[in-house]
């Protein structure tokens, strides 16, 4: 996947380092990779006046612009030097697809090295949520997810994650979506990739997204959700960051036997280990944890599983939990589909009856392959 079409197996084994091209990799350094202090240092290194760091931050994080022509408060010579070394173009829009009469927009981005990734903007009457990617592709190999089927391409840099948000914030502000100008209010790490497998860059991105402008984009930490397959040690580490972000855990079944196949990383960290890490997160953050449950016909939708789910969640998390049922979205090559509505209703009823809050997530963008588990970034 990462090698050019002209590569042959023979050449590759003989000279792997020389011929491993075109090399894909992280982009050059960008303002959005850096903390406020690091930005000041980077500007000083270029021999520019310290206040230029704040001017650049203001353009990027407050005015949401990356166009040098907008930066008229910086003299031309300095501007090109600063932009060249701190604001390389990271993401180029390849195409945008719309659904729900324009209220859902999926954007396909190309990174500097040709890597493709997607993000999805969803506008609701009272809020606008952006679903962002933390990796191009995903290495977790969940069999019902199109991203997982494609494998991992590479991690995204902090700035590549942040730039998806900056760009959607500009779309909302400029009112180019139906409904006129608005504000990007929520961010969910539910696009491509496993955020906790790209831990350091994701945490830095959360800080850039949530720090007040012009240090960051100024979106409240409580409005950011990090969704994970359940990398238990990383969940605990995230709790210790003492941020107010919401944690979502993609559980999909309460028993290890089935979860070992639905979420292969369960072979490493079991349901118990994942739920006790989730409890630690809930206790440390004081926030309820969301449990994601993609409901799959005849696979994980049995009444006994609903009862067992409620029981185990109550044991581990008490009232500090909420279940989101996601009707399975179809993916290419998968034989599975969503449960019939009556089965879904009964599942939700049983979880609620078991003492755990449970609702069905509204699905957006199925017709443009923008719904949960459908992001494949096909150019
Ligand atoms: N890797 C992280 C982030 C991806 S979030 C995680 O797994 O949590 C995407 C969510 O959609 C996850 O809960 C995932 O399990 C779910 N999902 C994947 N494929 C799906 C599908 N075909 N239908 C419905 N939900 C799906």
Question: Which molecules other than protein and nucleic acid are bound?
Answer: S-adenosyl-L-homocysteine
Unreliable stretches (pLDDT < 50, length at least 5) are 1-22
* Helix/sheet category: alpha/beta
Q: How many domains is the backbone divided into?
A: 2
Q: Give the end-to-end Cα distance, rounded to a whole number of Å.
A: 14 Å
Q: Compute the gyration radius: what is it?
A: 22 Å
Portion in strands: 15-25%
**In the CATH classification, which architecture of the largest domain applies?**
Alpha-Beta Barrel
**What is the name of the CATH class of the largest domain?**
Alpha Beta
In helices, the fraction of residues equals: 25-40%
Oligomer: single chain
The average pLDDT value, as a whole number, equals 93
According to CATH, what is the topology of the largest domain?
Answer: TIM Barrel
The CATH homologous superfamily of the largest domain is called Aldolase class I
What is the count of DSSP helices, taking H or I runs of 4+ residues?
Answer: 13
Major β-sheet profile: 10 strands, mixed
DSSP, total strands: 12
Strand arrangement in the largest pleated sheet: 1-2-3-4-7-8-9-10-11-12
GO cellular component, one term: cytoplasm
Cofactor: [4Fe-4S] cluster
GO molecular function, one term: rRNA (adenine(2503)-C2-)-methyltransferase activity
Main location: cytoplasm
């Amino acid at each position: 996947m990462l090698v050019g079409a002209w590569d042959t197996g023979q050449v590759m084994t003989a000279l792997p380092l020389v011929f491993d091209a075109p090399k894909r990799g992280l982009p050059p350094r960008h303002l959005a990779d850096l903390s406020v202090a690091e930005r000041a240092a980077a500007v000083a290194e270029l021999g520019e006046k310290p206040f230029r760091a704040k001017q650049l931050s203001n353009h990027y994080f407050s005015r949401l612009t990356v166009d040098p022509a907008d930066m008229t408060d910086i003299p031309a010579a300095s501007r090109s030097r600063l932009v060249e070394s701190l604001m390389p173009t990271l993401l180029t829009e390849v195409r945008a697809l719309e659904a729900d009469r324009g209220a859902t927009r999926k954007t396909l981005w190309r990174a500097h090295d040709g890597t493709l990734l997607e993000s999805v903007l969803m506008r609701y009457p009272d809020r606008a949520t952006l679903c962002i990617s933390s990796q191009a592709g995903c290495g977790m190999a969940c069999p019902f997810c199109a991203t997982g089927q494609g494998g991992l391409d590479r991690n995204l840099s902090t700035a590549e994650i942040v730039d998806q948000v900056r760009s959607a914030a500009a779309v909302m502000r400029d009112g180019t979506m139906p409904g006129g100008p608005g504000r990007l209010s929520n961010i969910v790490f539910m696009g491509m990739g496993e955020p906790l497998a790209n831990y350091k860059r994701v945490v830095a991105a959360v800080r850039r997204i949530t720090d007040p402008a012009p240090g960051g984009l100024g979106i409240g930490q409580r409005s950011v959700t990090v969704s994970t397959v359940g990398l238990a040690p990383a969940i605990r580490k995230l709790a210790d960051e003492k941020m107010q972000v919401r944690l979502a855990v993609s559980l999909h079944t309460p028993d290890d036997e089935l979860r070992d196949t639905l979420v292969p990383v369960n072979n490493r960290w079991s349901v118990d280990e994942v739920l006790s890490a989730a409890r630690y997160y809930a206790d440390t953050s004081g926030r309820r944890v969301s449990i994601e449950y993609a409901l799959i016909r005849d696979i994980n939708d049995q009444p006994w599983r609903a009862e067992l789910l409620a029981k185990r969640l109550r044991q581990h998390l008490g009232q500090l939990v909420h279940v989101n049922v996601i009707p399975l979205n179809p993916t290419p090559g998968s034989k599975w589909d969503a449960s019939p509505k009556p089965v879904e209703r009964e599942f939700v009823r049983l979880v609620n009856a078991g003492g755990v809050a449970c609702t069905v997530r509204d699905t957006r963008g199925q017709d443009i392959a923008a719904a949960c588990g459908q992001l494949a970034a096909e150019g």
